[in-house]
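Chain A, query sequence.
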Amino acid sequence: MSEAVVYKLLAILVIVCLGWGAGRMRWLGAGNDSSDPARVLGNAALYVFIPALLLRTTARLDFDSLPARTLVAYFAPALALLLAVYLWQHRRAAMARVGAAAPGVRALAATFGNTVQLGIPLAAALFDESGLALHIALISVHALLLVSIVTLLTELDLARAAQVDGRTRMGLLATLGTTVRNTLLHPVLLPVLIGLAWNATGVGLHPVVDETLLVLGSAVVPVCLVLIGLSLAYYGVRGHLRGAAAIAAAKLVVLPTLVLLVAHFGFALSGTPLAVLVVMAALPIGSNPLVFAQRYATLQSETTAAIVLSTLAFPAALALWLAVLARMP
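Chain A, predicted structure.
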């Protein structure tokens, strides 16, 4: 592993520790039900910073330059794992007595990687310019696709749960209508749709708008890393390590295995393109699943623990996958 990547990993852990220290010292508040700093910071990320980043990304995205075949080779197995985890957790949710959003949170955590703050310097260190360009192309649709699908599934689960527990009495059409409305107005999906619509006009963003979105979007990484530390301090991880370890293993081992098999044997990819896809799949869990968990007040402790565990285990996982790739024809 290159020195730059090691420094990036250490920087991530230091910022998380700073967030944990701020939480332990209660600098941002006591963390009671009426004033939860982790939730406030999570809402700031969800409603302000992440939408700005997604809106700018989609409005500027050049669809003609995206390598469609390679994107399918990555996202087909990623979506298959996401749906498999979702369906598996959906069957267990009733017995485990967790919230209706729990299957979606776990499915997103098992597939959503730290593709920007860790992935970009790693790709730059390991691959040539074409490899880095491919990694960035994958990033451009990574959050848009995974988060949008999980949002739709989770909102449908919440609408069904509301119907079952008697809070509302809705027919099938009303349930679907509620799901569609809540999904379209979701703070993650709505800016994506606006950005795509603006992209279709071909007008481009005004420099002032572009700079505003750029500044807001640049806050996503530090805010979310501090949020991880705060969540560790306020929620703890006791009793959640087993579930967190399973999710971390799915992200570090299962997803890259599926991507390797599909990309190499299904799409005949090899060399740098294959390595870029496998390494991206093996990245530790990103911060977006925690923001998602915060929105639905579900599995915050488990998700936080999974992010930390996967980040700590990532150097060993990366060494394993690089050794496997070195043996590939």
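The mean pLDDT is 84. The chain has one domain: 3-326.
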